[in-house]
What we know:
Layout: H1 3-64, H2 71-99, H3 105-121
Amino acid sequence: MTVRNDLKNVLGSLLKIGATRVELFGLELSEEKERMLGMLLFGMLGFVFVLLALMTGTVLIGLYFWETEYRFMVLLGLAVFHVLAAFACFFYIRSRFLQVAMPFSATVKALQDDARYIASQNPKGPL
Protein backbone atom coordinates (compact mmCIF):
# COMPACT_ATOMS: atom_id res chain seq x y z
CA MET A 1 0.00 0.00 0.00
CA THR A 2 1.16 3.45 -0.78
CA VAL A 3 0.68 6.65 1.11
CA ARG A 4 -1.65 7.84 -1.64
CA ASN A 5 -3.98 4.85 -1.13
CA ASP A 6 -3.92 5.35 2.63
CA LEU A 7 -4.82 9.02 2.20
CA LYS A 8 -7.68 8.08 -0.14
CA ASN A 9 -9.01 5.58 2.39
CA VAL A 10 -8.77 8.07 5.26
CA LEU A 11 -10.37 10.84 3.21
CA GLY A 12 -13.16 8.50 2.06
CA SER A 13 -13.85 7.45 5.64
CA LEU A 14 -13.93 11.05 6.81
CA LEU A 15 -16.35 11.97 4.04
CA LYS A 16 -18.62 9.04 4.96
CA ILE A 17 -18.56 10.06 8.63
CA GLY A 18 -19.34 13.64 7.67
CA ALA A 19 -22.21 12.55 5.42
CA THR A 20 -23.66 10.44 8.22
CA ARG A 21 -23.47 13.36 10.65
CA VAL A 22 -25.14 15.71 8.16
CA GLU A 23 -27.92 13.15 7.62
CA LEU A 24 -28.42 12.81 11.39
CA PHE A 25 -28.57 16.59 11.71
CA GLY A 26 -31.20 16.72 8.94
CA LEU A 27 -33.34 14.11 10.67
CA GLU A 28 -33.17 15.94 13.97
CA LEU A 29 -33.97 19.23 12.25
CA SER A 30 -37.13 17.77 10.71
CA GLU A 31 -38.18 16.30 14.09
CA GLU A 32 -37.62 19.66 15.76
CA LYS A 33 -39.66 21.42 13.07
CA GLU A 34 -42.54 18.97 13.54
CA ARG A 35 -42.44 19.40 17.32
CA MET A 36 -42.45 23.19 17.06
CA LEU A 37 -45.39 23.16 14.62
CA GLY A 38 -47.34 21.01 17.07
CA MET A 39 -46.56 23.44 19.88
CA LEU A 40 -47.64 26.34 17.70
CA LEU A 41 -50.94 24.62 16.90
CA PHE A 42 -51.75 23.96 20.55
CA GLY A 43 -50.68 27.49 21.48
CA MET A 44 -53.04 28.94 18.91
CA LEU A 45 -55.83 26.63 20.07
CA GLY A 46 -55.27 27.74 23.67
CA PHE A 47 -55.33 31.36 22.57
CA VAL A 48 -58.69 30.80 20.84
CA PHE A 49 -60.11 29.28 24.03
CA VAL A 50 -58.90 32.26 26.08
CA LEU A 51 -60.60 34.61 23.63
CA LEU A 52 -63.80 32.56 23.79
CA ALA A 53 -63.67 32.67 27.59
CA LEU A 54 -63.24 36.43 27.56
CA MET A 55 -66.08 36.91 25.09
CA THR A 56 -68.33 34.57 27.06
CA GLY A 57 -67.43 36.36 30.28
CA THR A 58 -68.36 39.67 28.73
CA VAL A 59 -71.73 38.34 27.61
CA LEU A 60 -72.16 36.80 31.06
CA ILE A 61 -71.72 40.14 32.77
CA GLY A 62 -74.21 41.70 30.35
CA LEU A 63 -76.75 38.97 30.91
CA TYR A 64 -76.29 39.02 34.67
CA PHE A 65 -78.51 42.01 34.84
CA TRP A 66 -81.03 40.59 32.35
CA GLU A 67 -83.97 38.83 33.99
CA THR A 68 -83.63 35.15 32.88
CA GLU A 69 -83.13 32.14 35.05
CA TYR A 70 -81.08 29.59 33.02
CA ARG A 71 -79.00 31.64 30.59
CA PHE A 72 -76.74 32.79 33.39
CA MET A 73 -75.80 29.26 34.45
CA VAL A 74 -75.26 28.08 30.83
CA LEU A 75 -72.98 31.01 30.04
CA LEU A 76 -71.10 30.53 33.30
CA GLY A 77 -70.61 26.86 32.41
CA LEU A 78 -69.32 27.81 28.95
CA ALA A 79 -66.90 30.34 30.38
CA VAL A 80 -65.54 27.78 32.87
CA PHE A 81 -65.20 25.18 30.10
CA HIS A 82 -63.27 27.57 27.86
CA VAL A 83 -60.93 28.62 30.66
CA LEU A 84 -60.23 24.98 31.60
CA ALA A 85 -59.61 24.07 27.95
CA ALA A 86 -57.19 26.99 27.57
CA PHE A 87 -55.29 26.00 30.73
CA ALA A 88 -55.14 22.37 29.52
CA CYS A 89 -53.57 23.49 26.23
CA PHE A 90 -51.07 25.80 27.91
CA PHE A 91 -50.05 23.21 30.51
CA TYR A 92 -49.62 20.64 27.73
CA ILE A 93 -47.26 22.99 25.89
CA ARG A 94 -45.37 23.76 29.11
CA SER A 95 -44.91 20.07 29.91
CA ARG A 96 -43.70 19.35 26.38
CA PHE A 97 -41.11 22.13 26.62
CA LEU A 98 -39.90 20.79 29.97
CA GLN A 99 -39.75 17.15 28.77
CA VAL A 100 -37.91 17.62 25.51
CA ALA A 101 -34.18 17.06 25.39
CA MET A 102 -31.78 19.57 23.92
CA PRO A 103 -32.34 19.94 20.18
CA PHE A 104 -29.81 18.02 18.07
CA SER A 105 -28.55 16.12 21.12
CA ALA A 106 -27.97 12.95 19.06
CA THR A 107 -25.76 14.88 16.62
CA VAL A 108 -23.78 16.46 19.47
CA LYS A 109 -23.35 13.05 21.15
CA ALA A 110 -22.17 11.45 17.88
CA LEU A 111 -19.62 14.22 17.34
CA GLN A 112 -18.39 13.90 20.95
CA ASP A 113 -18.03 10.13 20.48
CA ASP A 114 -16.04 10.76 17.30
CA ALA A 115 -13.76 13.19 19.12
CA ARG A 116 -13.21 10.72 21.98
CA TYR A 117 -12.41 7.94 19.52
CA ILE A 118 -9.93 10.09 17.61
CA ALA A 119 -8.30 11.20 20.89
CA SER A 120 -7.96 7.58 22.03
CA GLN A 121 -6.29 6.62 18.74
CA ASN A 122 -3.67 9.35 19.12
CA PRO A 123 -1.22 8.27 21.90
CA LYS A 124 0.19 11.83 22.25
CA GLY A 125 -3.21 13.28 23.21
CA PRO A 126 -5.70 15.45 21.34
CA LEU A 127 -4.80 16.85 17.94
